[in-house]
């Protein structure tokens, strides 16, 4: 092993190259500037100059989700670092592996309120899996290696590396590989066999089991194993917002998405079950509704790689700590052993009820009586025409729920969205990152006109860098989900939700063209397919379509906050007949 004398900044770039990084999203500034000089010379790193650090963070997320690798973003100290906070928080909530590298003021200035100083390590402590403050050049390479190891193993998540400017400027002896110093970091991946056997016994003894599948199954790459488990048991499967595509939507055992805007059949399956087998799910409030009324008669098998999630919200009768792929693989064997011993589940009556709910209460929507464009129809047609191989990246709000409901996901990882944090502005930069990670695949951002105006400056990045994403702006002229709540719970008092789209401020077509993109507009149902087809033919520039839709379309079904899932509404004054399914 030879030692080479280089600067800390060069050591940073070498370490990034050696851990396999090929793309960095970022913006230079004073404290991080020393790192940008060796980036200029790197033949392995592509640096993409974003227009806002939040865009860098979301792009790193999109890249990570499309590639399975750790995404990387970079910013300077102070406001550059704090602009990353929203994306870091988003990655933390949704277990997305990113490493955020920030410059820090010189170590002699730390704590003095120096120019552009912010305690970014302290600020992000609650929203990172781990973070580092590096003040010595000799620690840079090892810290980078440790950061990537932590971000990408166990339960994935964001790691921040804050590096003092003088550490980047100092000379250091560089060697690789480095020895990690993480004595307390030991993620458990192998489940306990006794717990797995007990889970298998409960499954075959249950009358109304449900496989409650969360995003951890996708993170573990366990979709193939999930399909085997589902077909082996014959139990119904519900896939959360973050697990769309873990089991194909077309699969006969798939009951759909549960939760606040889930399918009636999926919500009913959870509520009437006698056994929940939660795999990589965290019993989020958007799934459970009022917690004490959630699945009141069900025992719970809870498998998760993060022991902190077990029994956090709902007591687990059988807790299993382990990687979802390994848990499911062992569970398959244990159930096969139960079957060999003559123990099999009988779910015929359960499926009779499930099918009644599924047939009686399918997802649907009304066409506006005034002839205006239905947003659900637009999103449904994008899914049909772009097909199952595309990536769909949603912002947050009504359009996010419609994208979850009306696009059919047949493969894992096809749907990217901000689930836990619910970050407006996620879609455009995340789609940009996904397209960089999967350049040969079509990437559609399904965005709302409110979300789009938060981060649409990254269209300039896309145009300049040759990243031809397609953006469908579902333009209802309002902050749609907030307007829906104002309609339902505030007597139609629309306080500060009107975005004044009728005045075309901004004109999204002109805005797209100003950013070097192709701008299109559609406001008639008969034109939707042709406009989508035209967008799909353009592959040398980003495309933005302004879909002008009805302002009063609502997301149904809906479980109002603070109520139980039994109170689900399928329209404003309509609730399902749980007992008869009709």
TrEMBL record:
Domain Thiamine pyrophosphate enzyme TPP-binding span(s) in chain numbering: 395-547
Thiamine pyrophosphate enzyme N-terminal TPP-binding domain location: 7-121
Keyword RNA-binding: no
EC numbers for this chain: 2.2.1.6
Highest taxon, organism lineage: Bacteria
Cofactor, how bound (note): Binds 1 Mg(2+) ion per subunit.
GO cellular component terms, semicolon-separated: acetolactate synthase complex
Cofactor: Mg(2+); thiamine diphosphate
Domain Thiamine pyrophosphate enzyme central: 196-331
Stretches assigned to coiled coil: none
Pfam families assigned to the protein according to its UniProt record, in alphabetical order: TPP_enzyme_C (PF02775), TPP_enzyme_M (PF00205), TPP_enzyme_N (PF02776)
Catalysed reaction equations from the record: 2 pyruvate + H(+) = (2S)-2-acetolactate + CO2
Any one GO biological process: isoleucine biosynthetic process
Pathway: Amino-acid biosynthesis; L-valine biosynthesis; L-valine from pyruvate: step 1/4; Amino-acid biosynthesis; L-isoleucine biosynthesis; L-isoleucine from 2-oxobutanoate: step 1/4
NCBIfam families: acolac_lg, PRK07789.1
Protein name (record): Acetolactate synthase
Species assigned in the record: Actinomadura rubrisoli
């Amino acid at each position: 092993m030879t030692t080479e004398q280089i600067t800390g900044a060069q050591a940073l770039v070498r370490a990034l190259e050696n851990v396999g990084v090929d793309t960095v999203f970022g913006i230079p500034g004073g404290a991080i500037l020393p790192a940008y000089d060796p980036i200029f010379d790197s033949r392995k790193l592509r640096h993409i100059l974003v227009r806002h650090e939040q865009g860098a963070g979301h792009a790193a997320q999109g890249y990570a989700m499309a590639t399975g690798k750790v995404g990387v973003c970079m910013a300077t100290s102070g406001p550059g670092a704090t602009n990353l906070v929203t994306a870091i928080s988003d990655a933390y909530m949704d277990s997305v592996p990113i490493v955020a590298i920030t410059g820090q003021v010189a170590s002699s200035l730390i704590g003095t309120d120096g120019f552009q100083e912010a305690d970014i390590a302290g600020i992000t402590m609650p929203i990172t899996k781990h973070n580092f403050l590096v003040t010595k050049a000799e620690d840079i390479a090892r810290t980078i290696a440790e950061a990537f190891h932590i971000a990408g193993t166990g339960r994935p998540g964001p790691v921040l590396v804050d590096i003092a400017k003088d550490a980047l400027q100092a000379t250091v002896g560089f060697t690789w590989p480095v020895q990690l110093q993480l004595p307390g970091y030991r993620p458990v991946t192998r489940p306990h066999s006794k717990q797995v056997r007990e889970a298998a016994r409960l499954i075959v003894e249950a009358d109304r089991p449900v496989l409650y599948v969360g995003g951890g199954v996708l993170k573990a790459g366990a979709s193939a194993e999930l399909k085997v488990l589902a077909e082996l048991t014959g139990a119904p499967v519900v896939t959360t917002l973050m697990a769309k595509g873990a089991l194909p939507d077309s699969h006969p055992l798939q009951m759909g998405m549960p939760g606040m805007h889930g399918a009636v059949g999926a919500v009913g399956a959870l509520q009437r079950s006698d056994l929940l087998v939660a795999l990589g799910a965290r019993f989020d409030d958007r799934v459970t509704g009022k917690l004490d009324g959630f699945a009141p008669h069900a025992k719970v098998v809870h498998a998760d790689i993060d022991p902190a999630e077990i029994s956090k919200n709902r007591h687990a009768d059988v807790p299993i700590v382990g990687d979802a792929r390994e848990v499911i693989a062992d569970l398959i064997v244990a159930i096969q052993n139960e079957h060999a011993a003559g123990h099999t589940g009988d779910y015929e009556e359960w499926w009779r009820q499930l099918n009644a709910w599924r047939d009686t209460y399918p997802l649907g929507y009304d066409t506006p009586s005034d002839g205006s464009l239905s947003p659900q129809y637009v999103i449904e047609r994008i899914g049909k025409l772009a097909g199952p191989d595309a990536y769909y990246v949603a912002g947050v709000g009504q359009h996010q729920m419609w994208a979850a409901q009306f696009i059919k996901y047949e493969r894992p990882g096809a749907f990217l969205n901000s689930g836990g944090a619910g970050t407006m502005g996620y879609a455009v930069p995340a789609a940009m990152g996904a397209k960089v990670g999967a350049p040969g695949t079509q990437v559609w951002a399904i965005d709302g006109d409110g979300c789009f105006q938060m981060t649409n400056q990254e269209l300039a990045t896309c145009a300049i860098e040759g990243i031809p994403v397609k953006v469908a702006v579902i333009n209802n002229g309002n902050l749609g989900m907030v307007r829906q709540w104002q309609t339902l719970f505030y007597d139609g008092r629309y306080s500060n939700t009107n975005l004044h789209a009728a005045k075309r401020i901004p004109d999204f077509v002109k805005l797209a063209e100003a950013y070097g993109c192709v701008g299109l507009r559609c406001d008639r149902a008969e034109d939707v397919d042709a406009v989508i087809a035209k967008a799909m033919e353009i592959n040398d520039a980003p495309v933005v379509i302004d879909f002008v839709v009805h302002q009063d379309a609502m997301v149904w079904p809906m479980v109002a906050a603070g109520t139980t899932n039994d109170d689900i509404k399928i329209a404003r004054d309509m609730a399902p007949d749980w007992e008869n399914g009709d």
